[in-house]
């Protein structure tokens, strides 16, 4: 149960986007391991085959000469048997006529007693030579230890086999030291990315053009004594194409692209990260002109010493090594270091000092025109149906990053393929918007009748309050089909690509988000856990309004920053004033939402009824309900 308007959805780094450059090598173990396994299997098979052949042959060549004890006793009594050799429990019988036979006795009794029970007299027995042979030591031990030893051997073998694999992996980790950095060779056309592949991001591309020029003809710049920045840091939300852009710079300039990711260092052994950085820079210098790209540099470049419970040594050493290498550049070095981060706020200031990453390029989320261009780039190799209008898709996806647009296009293609169509239709793409935004529909999640009604009222509450309050966004779609973690959702469509939001918009937003909670309370006289996510969102928003945007009349235009242990930019008193203001904002918003829901209860019921019936209500159907009840639906600017 959540309201989603694309502009303020929480961005996760989208999982299904292409991860730029990672031709994962070094899994050479897999084939080796599996061929070893198949060797083992063949060996065992051959062994089993031989064993069965052997026992078969034995049974053919040796006629069965085992006789029952009663016969033995009778033969002894008749004096036919010359000697008996006892070996364990088996008896070897030598007959006077020279034939040999075998038999077995009860393990607990000796041979004289055994025969006596069959009625052999001591006199008769005296005529037979009885020798008792001990089992050979080996045989005895083998027979008694085999049941223990075989599993032990098997386990030992298993351990050995597994440890071989682990050691293999360990070797890989060690070889990191000699920089197994991913390199993209400019000659490899299949991996080549140029500025053409990066749609939008005009300012960023313009800034980077200078670097491309330098890498293409460094001499021109060096001769005139121009100092080219060593370090460029790309900043932007996840999925805005930072990695892509860095690769494009290398592609445009036709130089090798060495890349490592900050997050890889965090899990390595101490010292490996630093030595890897050293090797990487060495390699790049040899290949100069070249680009070194440190992706997700915030993973190693966080402000040092910050945070609880000691720093990560590895991280610090790696960061120091990067700084040392950059400081050690000769003025005529033709290596440019690029880095990317989506958390510029946590970067260690040492990284941003002159002579290091002093050039900053910000990449914004794409606006409508850029979104259309990005969609076009990713539609290039896909067959689109005649009804596809990418401009409409672009219009409906404010807040989407390049990576999300990429996966939208991809989802569209998957939908078409699953329905065995050769072309992607507009409807495929429209459905994909929601899938990318909220995760896949969970059709299997069946709501009980009561849950369904509850969800319907909750979403109807959001939709109604959004439609009534002046500054809230118009409703675009309501659904009670659960998606991802949400039981239902109300999609709102912001009027345009807003870069700024006003206090009035925030306040109406908070009220609309509380619409779900209020509707549940009013209709059921009770509140469920459903709106917990809604409450988190509005609490955070109200707090930001007060402490970051200066939108509280009482506290005034002050940005208070975050209050943490050991970092207390304002007093306890102010902290409790902020809390009070947050409560006041939410209370007032709740009162306004309640007013709307009570006043328009008839409309609320109508929307909820439609939702229970149809499960999904599109904008037209929703607005029909509004009009029937005398409410004028909101229009977007260009619709007026
Ligand atoms: P970031 O590094 O900023 O998280 P990436 O560069 O990894 O983002 O982008 C992921 C994918 O999203 C890219 O491989 C590309 O397919 C797509 N993408 C992102 N931005 C753009 C863009 N401006 N133009 C075309 N594709 C883009
Ligand atoms: Zn909700
Ligand atoms: Mg990236």
And the CATH topology of the largest domain? Methane Monooxygenase Hydroxylase, Chain G, domain 1
**Largest sheet, order of strands side by side?**
6-8-9-10-7-11
Strand content: 5-15%
Q: Could you give me the name of the CATH homologous superfamily of the largest domain?
A: Peptidase M41
- Number of alpha- plus pi-helical segments: 21
Using only C-alpha atoms, the radius of gyration works out to 40 Å
Poorly predicted runs? 6-34, 167-179, 306-310
* Backbone shape: elongated
CATH uppermost class of the largest domain:
Mainly Alpha
Bound molecules: adenosine-5'-diphosphate, zinc ion, magnesium ion
Mean pLDDT: 80
Structure description:
- It is a single chain.
- By secondary structure, this protein is α/β, with parallel strands linked by helices.
- It folds into 5 domains: 33-61 and 139-175, no CATH class; 69-134, Signal recognition particle alu RNA binding heterodimer, srp9/1, CATH 3.30.720; 182-363, 3-Layer(aba) Sandwich (Rossmann fold), CATH 3.40.50; 371-432, Helicase, Ruva Protein, domain 3, CATH 1.10.8.60; 446-628, Up-down Bundle (Methane Monooxygenase Hydroxylase, Chain G, domain 1).
- Helices cover 50% and strands 11% of the residues.
- It is built from 21 helices and 14 strands.
- It has helices spanning 29-61, 69-77, 111-117, 122-126, 137-175, 202-216, 218-223, 242-253, 262-266, 272-286, 313-327, 368-379, 390-395, 402-418, 426-438, 449-468, 503-524, 532-547, 572-599, 601-614, 619-628, and strands at 2-4, 81-87, 90-95, 100-104, 129-133, 182-184, 231-236, 257-261, 290-295, 335-341, 359-363, 475-479, 489-492, 616-618.
- The strands form 3 sheets. The chain has a 6-stranded mixed sheet, sandwiched between helices. A 4-stranded mixed sheet has the order 1-13-12-14.
- Helix 12 crosses helix 14, helix 16 (449-468) crosses helix 20 and helix 17 (503-524) crosses helix 19.
- The longest helix has 39 residues, at 137-175.
- The radius of gyration is 40 Å and the shape is elongated.
- The two termini are 31 Å apart.
- Mean pLDDT is 80; it is low at 6-34, 167-179 and 306-310.
- Residues 1-3, 458, 462, 516, 531, 534 line the site of zinc ion.
- Zinc ion binds next to strand 1 and helix 16.
């Amino acid at each position: 149960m959540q309201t989603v308007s694309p502009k303020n959805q929480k961005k996760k780094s989208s999982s299904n986007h292409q991860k730029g450059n990672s031709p994962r090598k070094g899994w050479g173990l897999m084939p080796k391991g599996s061929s070893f396994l198949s060797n083992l299997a063949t060996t065992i098979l051959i062994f089993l085959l031989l064993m069965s052949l052997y026992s078969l042959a034995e049974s053919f060549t040796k006629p069965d000469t085992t006789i029952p004890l009663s016969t033995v006793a009778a033969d002894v009594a008749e004096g036919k048997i010359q000697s008996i050799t006892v070996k364990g429990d088996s008896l070897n019988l030598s007959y006077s006529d020279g034939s040999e036979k075998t038999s077995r006795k009860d393990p607990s009794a000796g041979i004289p007693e055994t025969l006596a029970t069959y009625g052999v007299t001591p006199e008769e027995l005296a005529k037979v030579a009885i020798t008792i042979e001990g089992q050979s030591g080996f045989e005895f031990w083998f027979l008694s230890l085999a049941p223990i030893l075989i599993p032990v051997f098997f386990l030992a073998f298993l351990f050995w086999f597994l440890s071989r694999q682990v050691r293999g992996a360990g070797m890989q980790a060690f070889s990191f030291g000699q920089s197994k950095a991913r390199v993209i060779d400019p000659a490899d056309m299949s991996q080549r990315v140029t500025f053409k592949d990066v749609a939008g991001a005009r300012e960023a591309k313009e800034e980077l053009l200078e670097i491309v020029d330098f890498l293409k003809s460094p001499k021109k710049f060096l001769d005139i004594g121009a100092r080219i920045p060593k370090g460029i840091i790309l900043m932007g939300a996840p999925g805005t194409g930072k990695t892509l852009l860095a690769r494009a710079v290398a592609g445009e300039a036709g130089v090798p692209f060495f890349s490592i990711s900050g997050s890889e260092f965090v899990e390595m052994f101490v010292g490996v990260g630093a030595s890897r950085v050293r090797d990487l820079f060495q390699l790049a210098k040899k290949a100069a002109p070249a680009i070194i790209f440190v992706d997700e540099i915030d993973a190693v470049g966080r402000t040092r010493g910050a945070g609880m419970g000691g720093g990560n040594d590895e991280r610090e050493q790696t960061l120091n090594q990067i700084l040392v290498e950059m400081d050690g550049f000769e003025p005529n070095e033709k290596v440019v270091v690029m880095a990317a981060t989506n958390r510029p706020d946590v970067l260690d200031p040492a990284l941003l000092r002159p002579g290091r990453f002093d050039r900053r390029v910000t990449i914004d989320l794409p606006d409508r025109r850029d979104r259309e261009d990005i969609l076009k780039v990713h539609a290039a190799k896909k067959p689109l149906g005649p009804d596809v209008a990418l401009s409409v898709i672009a219009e409906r996806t404010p807040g989407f990053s390049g990576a999300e647009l990429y996966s939208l296009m991809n989802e569209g293609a998957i939908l078409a393929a699953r329905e065995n169509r050769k072309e992607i239709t507009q409807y495929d793409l429209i459905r994909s918007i929601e899938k990318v935004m909220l995760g896949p529909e969970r059709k299997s999640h069946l709501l009980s009748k009561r849950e369904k009604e509850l969800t319907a009222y909750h979403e109807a509450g959001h939709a109604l309050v959004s439609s009534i309050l002046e500054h809230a966004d118009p409703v675009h779609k309501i659904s009670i089909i659960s998606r991802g973690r949400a039981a239902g959702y109300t999609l709102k469509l912001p009027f345009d690509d807003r870069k700024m939001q006003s206090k009035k918009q925030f306040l109406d937003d908070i009220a609309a988000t509380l619409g779900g909670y209020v509707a549940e309370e009013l209709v059921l006289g009770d509140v469920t856990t459903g709106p917990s996510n809604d409450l988190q969102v509005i609490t955070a928003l109200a707090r930001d309004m007060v402490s970051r945007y200066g939108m509280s009349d009482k506290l005034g235009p002050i940005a208070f920053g975050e209050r943490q242990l050991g970092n207390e930019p304002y007093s306890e008193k102010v902290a409790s004033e902020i809390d009070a203001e947050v409560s006041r904002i939410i209370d007032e918003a709740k009162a306004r939402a309640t007013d709307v829901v009570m006043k328009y209860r008839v409309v609320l019921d109508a929307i909820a009824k439609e939702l229970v019936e149809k499960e999904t209500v599109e904008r037209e159907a929703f607005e029909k309900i509004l009009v029937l009840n005398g409410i004028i639906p909101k229009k977007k600017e260009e619709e007026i």
